[in-house]
Every structure is written in C-alpha cells, then in structure tokens.
Amino acid sequence: MKTVMRNIALVATLGGGAVGFAATPEDVENSFYPYKNGLPEAAGVTPGMVINASNVDSVKDVLDPGMYQHIKDGWMEMKVEETTSFDLHPNYVEATRKGLGQVELGEKLGQINGFVAGRPFPEEPDASDPRAGEKLAWNYKYGYNWGDNAAITPFYWKYRNMKNAKIERTIKFGFHFLNFKHRVNQDPLPEFADNPSDLFRAIYVQVHEPFDVKNTQLLIHRYSDDTKRDNTWLYLGFQRRVRRLSSGQITDSFLGADIMIEDFEGYNGRLSDMNWTYKGTQTVLLPFYNHNEMELSTQYKEDDGYQFVEYGGKGGCFPNITWQLRKVYLLEADPIDDNHPIGKRLHYVDAQTFTLPRTMIYDRKGDLWKSWTIGQAHPDHHLAKNKGSGVSIDDSFSMVDLQAGHCTTGQMKGQLDPEMNPKSLFTVQNMRAKGR
To answer: Whole-model pTM?
Structure first.
C-alpha cells in the first residue's frame, strides 16, 4: 500500500495533478483574502512615508531591484500608503470554489484539464512542486484582469526621451478585451455558444490619433488550446489592407514604442512559449492605489470629468501614484525559443489579484534591459460604472528602457462596460470596415 501511495504522489507531482497539491476551501479563502487577518508589515515602512535616495537603503528589502535602483539614482520618489484589499468579484471566487478538485495540468507545458472558470490553482505555490511556476502562470492567464470584457478608451501613449524629458510622440488608442470562454459575471455564461474557432480571448486595438497612424488596428485571437499559436492581424491605414502577423512580430516594437505586443498587460503570450519558475514569496511595495485620490493630470478634458494619472520623475517616465506593501509571488519566465529578443522576465505577481504590476526584463546577456510598471486602481475609487466590478484596473503604465534612456508611458481610462465590447468588434471584417 505504501508503494502504491508513493507512486500516486509521484504521478501527481510530475503531471501537476490535483492529488499531490490539491487545493482546499481554506486555500480559496486565503488566496482571495490574504489580508483578512492582518496587513503586511516591514521594518521602517509606514503609510504616508516618502521613499527617496536618502532613505531607500533602509527599505531595500521591500523593493524589487529595478525600483530600488530608480530611487537610489534619484529618478523618482515613492509615496507609501496603507495596504488595502482588492476583492475580486464574488462570482469569480465562487467559480474557483466550484472548480476545486477538478483542475489539473496536462502532461505537457500549456495543457490544462478540467478547468471551467475562476482561479485554476488557488493553493499556495509549493517550492517542492516542479510545476509551481506553471500553475502561477495559469492563474494569471485565467485571472480576472478586465473581467469578462472591458475597454480602455481613450488610452494615451507618450514616447519620452529620459535625457531631456522631451515628449517625442503621443498616440491616442482605444483598446478592447473580450473573453469568449470562462466567463463568470456577464451573459452568456460561462461562454459564447457560437465560438467555432474555440477562442478563449480576443483583443482589439484602434489608433485614433495622430493622423499619420490613424485607423491602424490590431486584432489578436487567443485560442482555448494554449499550444495553438494566436492569430494576429494588423491593419495599416496607409496600406488600406489587413495582414496577418507572424509569431516573431509580436516581439517587435509596437508602433515605435518601448513595448512589444507580448508585453501587453504584463505578459501577452502563450504559456507554452515560456519556461515558468516559481522563485519564492515576498512582501514587496507595488503600485496599488485609489485613482480618485491621486493628484491627476489636467491636460485632457473628458466630458464626464475623468482625469488621467500624471507623470513625473526623470524624463517624466514615472506615474505619480502611491504604493502599498503587498504579498507577492516571484515568477520567472524564460523564452523557449533561443531567438527570442529577451533573456528572461521576472514578474512580481500580486498574490491577491494575480495582476503583473512590476516586471523586470533582462536581455540575452543577463543585464537588466527594461523596467515595466502597471499601476493598479481600485474599482470602487474610479469611474462610477466600475464600482463593484471586482476588477483590479490597469490604470497607468511605464515601460523604461534603461539601456536606451527612453520610456513609453500610458494614461488609461479603463471602463467595465459590455456595451462597448460587442462580439462583432473582434473580427477581421470589422477591421476592414473601420479602415474604409
């Protein structure tokens, strides 16, 4: 009997199944409400303090190496606020409970079995589990980032020279997201009945300004089968035609920015394109805040009075927001393709929301190349339509290319509004129609 049990445990470990590392109802509670029994603490870190070059060494342990260096070099200051709970939608939590004991990894990277909706693997990552990193990656892929669907419009990208603070270019976008499957909150549930390609998710992007790139469009279809490559199309207004992008082009600079398509939302690629390694759990300062309580920009005038996050620091490359101590999983992603332009990404995964607020990107020589920040706004302190949505809202971004002395920043108006994201928007036919 002991031999049989050892063999079962071994199969579970190697296959990533539910036997060896099965989640419990208590795991679900701890995963979604990590601060219910107390807020994270760190020596010398108090709400209201400002971290700058003079005191950063005293709190180095709660900063990722990239952010530590930014502050140490005097590029920015960081204001700390009290940790707050970003509760995800109750339907997403309940879907996780219903899935307990049913979800397991397949034999190969990029395969998952028994998943319907919610967080696939709510248990704490186990360092002895060789596939713990892969499970964290699935939790991100099937996270509640933007819910079942959402729009970021308008969405301003600014290309900045860090050396002289010059804004070289501003592009005004509209971004739209739609989940075809694993839906938990908006009809149809849990998926669209008419989905012949078996898509999981789609992203549609349209440029509104300036004139020379107006109506440039991007469409991404992500399949439910992670081992199947995305279909990605680009419409260039001056060419007046839709063309399909090769897999290699998602790692090119997107419209001259410091960002590639694969960087969207922190990571916008297939799980099966990376080796995933869990590197430990830490308490780290992350960019979580209440949007309406920030000092906001007055540059753009929205009819509803909405104002965007302002930027400052060296070159204007850093969002003027507050940061919180958060429970974080360190997740390393190494490209399987040796020709990939990056060496690795180190994601600082927020343990409650499974968003990717901080990522450090290394080049193929192992040197730090880019510093990627995505500010997370609480939905109850944002637009009225977002209140109660249970979505941790991507609200600002900064991609700093340390080697080029350049950055791209993003000012976002995220809207949880299903009427803005009809299924018909996410088609090649729509791209052609919008381009006329």
So the answer is: 0.94
